[in-house]
Amino acid sequence: MSNEAGTATTAAEPAAETEGGWPHGLGASLPHADARAKTEGTFPYAADLWAEGLLWAAVLRSPHAHARIVSVDTSHAREMPGVRAVVTHEDVPGTPRHGRGVPDRPVFASEVVRHHGEPIAAVAADHPDTARMAAAAVIVEYEVLDPVTDPEQAFEAEPLHPDGNLIRHIPLHHGDPEAAGEVVVEGLYRIGRQDPAPIGAEAGLAVPRPDGGVELYLASTDPHSDRNTAAACYGLSPDRVKIVVTGVPGATADREDQGFQLPLGLLALKTGCPVKLTATREESFLGHAHRHPTLLRYRHHADGEGKLVKVEAQILLDAGAYADTSADALAAAVSFACGPYVVPNAFIEGWAVRTNNPPSGHVRGEGAMQVCAAYEAQMDKLAKKLGLDPAELRLRNVLATGDVLPIGQTVTCPAPVAELLQAVRDFPLPALPKDTPEEEWLLPGGPEGAGEPDAVRRGVGYGLGMVHMLGAEGADEVSTATVKVHDGVATVLCAAVETGQGFTTLARQIVQETLGIEEVHVAPVDTDQPPAGPGCRGRHTWVSGGAVERAAKMVRTQLLQPLAHKFGMSTELLQITDGKITSYDGVLSTTVTEAMDGKELWATAQCRPHPTEPLNASGQGDAFVGLAFCAIRAVVDVDIELGSVRVVELAVAQDVGRVLNPTQLAARIEAGVTQGVGIALTENLRTPRGLIRHPDLTGYALPTALDAPDIRIVKLVEERDVVAPFGAKSVSAVPVVTAPAAIASAVRAATGRPVNRLPIRPQAAVVTAP
After folding, report:
1. Strand partners of residue 710
2. Which of 105, 239, 436, 596 has the maximum number of C-beta atoms within 10 A of its C-beta?
3. φ/ψ of residue 552, rounded to 5
C-alpha cells in the first residue's frame, strides 16, 4: 500500500532504522518494550507477586442483589486454624466510602446490600484455601428485598441509596423546538451490559511499612487516585501509602475494582504481614464496573433531500448500584447523541440512574458507543424511507471543521468525516463465498453450525463514530515527566501507566527523536513520582507524551547551549540526528556522547491542555478538548433461517492526526474493531433479577480468533491537530464505538429487519417467509 497525501500506511510500511538496524524516533515501528516477555510467558503479572511471610486473602461477597443485613457473625471464621484476621465495615478506620467518580460506595456493606457480589467481609490466612473457607464461614443474616432492576422503574422506586436514585439529568436544548421535517423516523433501541473481561483477573499485594503505612503492589491504571482513596480509607496521610504499579496485563477500561484493592491494605495493617489477593474469574465479573446498559428513544426529522432538520432523543443509562463515572458517560452520550452530523435543531434528554444491577463505569467509548448504535440505525431508517443509498444520505449530513455541535461547541480540530466515509465506501468489496465443501467455514456458524447456503444473505452497512479525547467538562488534564541523561543513556520518569496503549514505546521514541540517544529506559511507575492521571481516552499519548517531549527539549537546550555559545550561534542552528550534533554550516560536528562529557542532564516538565467547561442547564458548553472520528463499512453474511451472523470484513478509515508508530497504531485499531465485534454479536452479561448469570468466560462469550473478521485499514488521515503534542489523536476508542453500529447496519441490509438491540440476537436476524 503506498502513501497518499493526507494518509498513512501501516503494516506494509518499512520502519525507520538506525545504523544499528533498530527502528527509532517518531514515525518508526519501534517494538513494544514488554512484547517479547508477554509472548514468551515470562512477563511478571500481578498474580505472580510474592513476599516473605505472605498471607492470603479472600473476600465474602453478597449472594443477593438487594437485601438488608440483619447481622454479621465472624466468630467462626476467626476461630479457624490459620486465620490471622477478619475485617468488616467496623474495621475501616477512615473514610468508609469510595468511588472513581462519586465516593458513594462502601468499602464493606454494613446495613444494606445493593448489588450482587458487594463485599461484606475479608479474611487473611496462611493458605489460600483456608482464607476461602474462612470467608465462607462468616455468617450473614439477610432480609432479602425486591431488587429494582429496570432503570425506568428507578424514577418511582424507593431510594436505593442515601443520595437517591437519580445520578444526573442532562437536558440539551439546541435550536428551534418547533422545527419539523418532511420525513420523520422513530426508533427504540437497547444496548446490553458488556464486561471488560480482562484476560488477567485482578490481583495485588499489600506490604506493611515500619512507619505504620502500607505499600500496595497493584495493576493500577490510575495509581495516584487509588493511593488517595486508600489513604482516606485507612485513615492515613497520602505520604504513608505508596502504590507500585506492577504486572498490568493490558486494560480495556479502568477495570480495577477498588473494593478489591482496599481490603488488602486493611488486612496488611491489621496483621502486620504481607497479604496477597488474586481474584477468581467469578470475583472479577462481580467486582469491577461494566458498560452501561442503555435504553434510547429517537426521532429524526429530515427534509425531502435527506438533510437533517431536527433530532429528538431520550437516553437512559443504567448505572447499577453506584455512581462511579456514570455522570461522565451521560455527558458523552448526550453530547454525541446526534453523531458526526450537522443537526441545526436538537433536543436530547439524558438520565443516569441507580438500580440494583451490577455497577457500571468507564469502559472504552462509554456513552458514545451506545448512542452511535442508535443514531446510525436512524440514518438507515431515513435512507430507506427516502429511497437513498445509506452512504449517500450520510455524506449529505456529515460534520466538518468549523461546524457547531449540538452542545454549542465549534469543531476546531480536523474533522475529515466525509473523506473517511468516501474511503470506505469506495474500497473494493470482498469476493462472495464459494458454495463448495472445502470452504464451508465461510458460511455463518462455521462448518458444524452452518445452515443451507441458499439461506445466506450478504449485507453491507456503514457506521460513523466520534469520541472525545482526554477528560471533559472542566477536568484538569495535567501530567508531569522527567528526562535524565547520563553516560549516553536516557531515563524517563513519568507516572503514566503502560496499559497496552504503547506509552512506554512512545516515550522512548520521543526522547530518541529529540536527543538522538538510542538507549532510552522508562522507569517503573509508583506514587513517589508526580501524578500523570488515569490511562484512558488517549490521555497519555497527548498529555504525558507532551510532558516527555517538553522535558526532552529542555535537556536538549542544556546540551546544545554550551556548544552554541562556543561557536557563536543559537541552539536553533544546531540539529541532532542519529546521535550526532551538527551545525547548519557544517562547522560543528560532534557526537552527543562527546558533548555530554560525562555530565548528567535532567529536566522536569508538565503538559496541560487548554481548559474546558461543564455543560450548563441547557446542555451547552465547550466541554471537550479534542474529537476523533472513524468510518467503518461492514460486510456480513447472515443465515436468515438460523439467524447466525458472520462478519466477513470491516473496512476502516480513521483520522489519527499523525502516525507515531505504524505497527502499534494498526494493532490498536484492529483490537478496537474486534472488541466492537463482541459488542455487536456475542457479549452480553445477563443479570436476571440483578444476579449475574454465568460469571465466567464460558457463559460470557468473547469473540475468538475464529470470530475476528478481515480488518482492512483503508485510510488513515494525518491532518494534525495543532493543539495536540505531535498533532496525534486517540485511536483506540473510536473503532470500538463505530464497529457495532456498522455491523448492525449490515445485518439490517441483509435481512430487512430493524435490528434495534445489541448484541444482535439470532431471532432478530431471522427472516420468515411471507
Report:
1. 649
2. 105
3. -65, -40
Instruction: Name the nearest CA neighbour of 256 among 292, 217, 313.
Output: 217
CA distances, 404 to each of 462, 475, 482 (Å): 23, 22, 39
DSSP string, 531-583: P---S-TTHIIIIIHHHHHHHHHHHHHHHHHHHHHHTT--GGGEEEETTEEEE
DSSP 433: P
444: left (phi over 0), alpha (psi -120 to 50) or beta: beta
3-state secondary structure of 223: helix
State how far the Cα of 134 lies from the Cα of 79, in Å rounded to an integer: 9
CA 398 to chain centroid, in Å, comes to 25
Q: Which residue has the higher pLDDT, 454 or 355?
A: 355
E strand or H helix at 715:
strand 710-717
3-state SS, residue 337: coil
For 613, other C-beta atoms within 10 Å of its C-beta total 14
**Global pTM?**
0.93
First to last CA, the chain: 47
- Hey, how many other C-beta atoms are within 10 angstroms of the C-beta on 199? 10
Q: What's the chain's length in residues? A: 770
Residue 556 in grid coordinates: 536538549
Q: What pLDDT is recorded for position 559?
A: 86
> Torsions phi, psi of 342, nearest 5?
-80, 115
Sign, CA dihedral 223-224-225-229, equals positive
* DSSP letter assigned to residue 290: B
pLDDT single digits (tens) 519-567: 899 999 999 999 988 877 778 888 999 999 999 999 989 888 888 787 7
Which of 147, 116, 154, 105 has its CA nearest to residue 316? 154
**CA atoms within 13 A of residue 72's CA, in its CB half-sphere:** 25
CA distance 180 to 310: 7
Q: How large is the average pLDDT for residues 288-310?
A: 96
Cα 550 from Cα 514, distance rounded (Å): 10
pLDDT band at 15 (very low <50, low <70, confident <90, very high): very low
* Radius of gyration, CA atoms only, the chain: 27
Contact 348/337 with Cβ under 8 angstroms?
A: yes
From CA 367, how far away is CA 553, in angstroms rounded? 37
Any idea of the CA torsion for 702, 504, 531, 321, to the nearest 10 degrees? 0
Alpha-carbon distance of 618 to 57, in angstroms, equals: 49
| Confidence check: pLDDT of 11 > 60 | no
Question: CB neighbours of 531 closer than 8 A, spacing ≥ 6?
Answer: 224, 478, 479, 480, 495
Check if the beta carbon of residue 497 is closer than 8 Å to that of residue 248: yes
Cell of 676: 466492537
pLDDT single digits (tens) 320-333: 999 999 999 999 99
Contact assessment for residue 401 and residue 473, using Cβ atoms and an 8 Å cutoff: no
- Checking if the pLDDT of 579 tops 80, the result is no
Packing angle of the helix pair 503-515, 545-566 (nearest 10 deg): 10
In 10 A of CB 6, how many CB atoms? 14
Q: Binning pLDDT at 50, 70 and 90, where does residue 8 land? A: very low
634 exposure class (CB count in 10 Å sphere: 0-12, 13-18, 19+):
buried
Strand 757-758 to strand 183-191: parallel, antiparallel, or no bridges (unpaired)? parallel
| C-alpha–C-alpha distance, residues 631 and 223, integer Å | 34
Higher pLDDT, 494 or 706: 494
224 and 406 Cβ atoms separated by less than 8 Å? no
Q: Mapping DSSP to helix (H, G, I), strand (E, B) and coil, where does residue 480 land?
A: strand
Q: Which of 389, 449, 396 is nearest to 425 (CA)?
A: 389
DSSP single-letter state for residue 7: B
Residue 569 CA to residue 589 CA, distance in Å, equals 14
> Which residue type occupies 273?
C
Report how far residue 559's alpha carbon sits from residue 482's, in angstroms, rounded to the nearest whole number: 16
Model pLDDT, residue 86: 97
